[in-house]
Design goal:
- The chain is mainly beta and 265 residues long.
- It has 3 helices and 15 strands.
- The protein has a 15-stranded antiparallel β-sheet that branches.
- A hairpin with a 2-residue loop joins β13 and β14.
Length: 265
């Protein structure tokens, strides 16, 4: 059931993006598109993201889904501009025996990064924390985790280049659950087109340093930015294919889609 629900959401997002037209969209500038796609942009935002996994290595005919609610809050502390980001997932696990499919809250992730500039390069670095808020063991790690998050963004005349890198390890939690030690790297490539359209490749590479499991996907998608009532909307969809993997039950195909909103302060 989750497969068709997720694909329906993705199809609706794509149709809405394709049908958007009008003077508001036509007046969106290249700088507006870059700002809407820049994870280091210090603007209050709210994101609705959906990550659907359609195939796993070693799990025949299994899929899963993670719907993510994300808030971005710019602020100042210690004399430096910062961005706090909170992500709360609603997860549907694969239908795997003996527990079967589960749906519920996942683990809450927070990070707070300090913003810097070096020439034309934007940099963010700071601590991150993951709390074991999952409503079922199948939907989270059962561990408190802490680590670091960092991002580097290089704005270009045609769009954005950059990457977001995170690392965290467990330090407390359910003693019966395995230790966590994970890293991710999310390269950013955003290429601006006309009238608010853009193409994107932003798949997240995942590395389980505890089990030496990893998977590296490559994505290619599209989206559109428009403004209405002072709010900036960014709607996108990006299919992603795993090109390098090691370990069992790692994703082989996924679709990442979402709607980002930026609000004037």
């Amino acid at each position: 059931m989750v497969r068709w629900q997720a694909l329906s959401r993705v199809a609706c997002l794509a149709l809405i993006a394709a049908s958007m037209h009008g003077p508001a969209c036509a007046q969106v500038s290249g700088d507006d598109v870059k700002s809407a796609n820049n994870p280091l942009q210090p603007i209050f935002g709210f994101n609705l993201h959906d990550q659907y996994v359609g195939a796993y290595d070693g799990l025949d005919d299994k899929d899963s889904n993670a719907f993510m609610l994300r808030a971005i809050l710019p602020h100042k502390a210690f004399g430096r501009p910062q961005i706090m980001r909170a992500t709360m997932p609603v997860v549907t696990s694969p239908d795997v025996a003996p527990n079967g499919r589960k749906t519920g809250a996942g683990d809450l992730n927070l990070f707070d990064i300090f913003l810097f500039k070096a020439g034309g390069i934007e940099i963010g670095v700071g601590p991150q924390l993951t709390a074991p808020t999952a409503s079922d063991d199948a939907l989270g790690t059962g561990k408190w985790q802490a680590g670091l998050a960092g991002a580097v963004i290089a704005p270009q005349s045609w769009g954005l280049l950059g990457a977001l890198v995170t690392w965290q390890t467990s330090f407390a939690g359910d003693s019966d659950r395995r230790r966590q030690n994970n890293a991710t790297a999310q390269p950013f490539l955003i290429y601006n087109l006309s009238k608010g359209w853009f193409v994107r490749s932003t798949a997240t590479w995942s590395f389980d340093l505890e089990t030496n499991s990893r998977y590296i996907p490559v994505g290619l998608g599209a989206g559109r930015v428009w403004k209405s009532g002072g709010i900036t909307y960014n709607l996108f969809v990006e299919p992603q294919w795993t090109v390098i993997s090691h370990g069992s039950a790692v994703p082989q195909f996924q679709v990442f889609a979402g709607l980002n909103l930026q609000f004037p302060l």
